[in-house]
Amino acid sequence: METPAGAIAPSAPFLGASSGAFYPTPTERAPALAARLGLSDLEIMLQTAGEYAPRFARRLATACDGEGRRVHAVHLWQQLHPLLSPYARRAREGRVAFERAIEVARTLSAAVLVWHGPTPAELAVPDGRSRFADAAGTLGARCGEAGIRLAIENVSWCALAQAREVAAFATRTSGLDSAARPGFVFDPFQAAEAGANPFLILASMGDRLVDVHLSDRSADDPTARHLPPGDGDLPWAALLRAIVGTGYRGPLMIEAPLDPDGITLARVRARLDPLLAALVAGGDGRDGAPPPGVVEGIALFNARRFYDAHEAIELEWHAERGDRRRLYQGILQIGVGFHHVLGGNHRGAVLLLTDGIAKVSRFVPRCLGLDTGRLVTESAACLAVIEDLGPDGLGRFDPETIPMVHAAA
Q1: Which domains can be identified in the chain, with CATH numbers?
Q2: Which residues form the Xylose isomerase-like TIM barrel domain (predicted)?
Q3: pLDDT value for 287
Q4: For a Cys staple, 271 with which of 167, 230, 266, 345, CB 3.0–4.6 Å?
Q5: What's the pTM?
């Protein structure tokens, strides 16, 4: 998102809201509700064909101006845009509706036009993926002419559900002129719905991230969808760190339902604002404290729950873009190495411990308040014993000698 001349660029992403968060309140009332909640930026989710009309766009622009709200993005109504349909009239009318949406975005001074891309059924035509990339390039150029960035969202039931699909699309469109090249919208909820790794999806988007959607889900209850961030089990500390690591500094659009009294938003702010503030204050040096996922993982490591420690730390490893990710990976690998020891896998233990110790050794004697020197020394001593015992003698290894991760003195 470009910053207007004379404006101060934000130092970190900040909370905004989709007009869909106020559903079924009419779209034109979203600016007033956002103002009431103190949210400066909106994503307008078009809900009907009538909301594509120029008259409605002007009415909405007047409402936004009157409330002092900015429109960062306009979100297409998916059903109106079957651009790859073999039924020519559907495809043609979908393209006409797309042109109207571009005009809506221009009227609202939006920076981004959000599209899910085609569904798998729509892609099931000859050269479907190539046609999708070509259409995105053509429409991206039209958006660019209007001063808008077309952006494709990772959606569980559409074209870019998996990281490999995002990466392939990014490669197919990388040669386009910068004004025409589509950007991406990152939605960690949708990644979870698709069973995809959200960190790999975000990494596949590269430096083309232009919008972010926020809602949560509970893995234990698939019906609990689009929860307020923090009400489910998505790893928000790691996700926000990864988002900041891309360089994105625009609004984070809440898509979960928001009540007009601000009770839900206050709960979301209490969870996310401290995490965002810590990201602004933090750095990539050796001072400070480990992020929450690493703290949790270390506690599990010290409880000898090495597999669970791996799961917790892996999220932070994916999220971190700086050199510290090697430290996180090293601790993770040492834990998995000892997991292999306890499981009788000599070869796996030697490989993981050797690699993990080498990585953590780059951060001795201490880093992030951790006594990395002691962890390396004690893990190396265990590795030497394990190598001497060999595969047949691994059962004689004393698990009481497995080190813990200690705080630096």
Answers
A1: 14-281 (3.20.20.150), 292-401 (1.10.3450.10)
A2: 32-260
A3: 67
A4: 230
A5: 0.79
